[in-house]
Amino acid sequence: GDSVTQMEGPVTLSEEAFLTINCTYTATGYPSLFWYVQYPGEGLQLLLKATKADDKGSNKGFEATYRKETTSFHLEKGSVQVSDSAVYFCALSTNAGGTSYGKLTFGQGTILTVHP
Amino acid sequence: DAGVIQSPRHEVTEMGQEVTLRCKPISGHNSLFWYRQTMMRGLELLIYFNNNVPIDDSGMPEDRFSAKMPNASFSTLKIQPSEPRDSAVYFCASSWGQQGRQPQHFGDGTRLSIL
Q: Which residues of chain B lie closer than 8 angstroms to A109, CB-CB?
């Protein structure tokens, strides 16, 4: 079945440090890939997405590239801020059989804490 | 634009009571998802609907849990009777399309505490 594996957290960084959160997946067909962010006390928000191989999703300084050959979708940011402290989830959606109804398979989440 | 609206935001009740959580999806979305989030088990998909029809309820933990979607703009998740281990944050999300390329949009959740 489909699965998503994220790097274990928590991740603690100083402000302006470089961020990488690794995400690899196993899926049938051609999945779409997503990164969601969850701030304390809130629901998950879409951060970025990519729907086909070699696509790069980007938003708020975050980037991730859909790598079919390595089945990866690693999240990166060049300079993190304290306000980026949150939980980050990698997710995929497959189109198996032509109708997935948008069901997502999530990774376990990675807690990021950024110190001033 | 209005996002996914959940109510109540917080619910505290005693064990054995019936609990009803409500969700209004984004207008035009045709899929609706109910999740439960706890520290121990993370984010779990409970059930999802497409065009108001339940597609997969294999994540519903037991018969005490039930969900309905009487129309395209409203869904409920009911727990009867409630137990302390049901304490969690429950999220509703919606999306449109059937090809899986569109993201899900989440509500702010209902924080449920069963005493």
A: 42-43
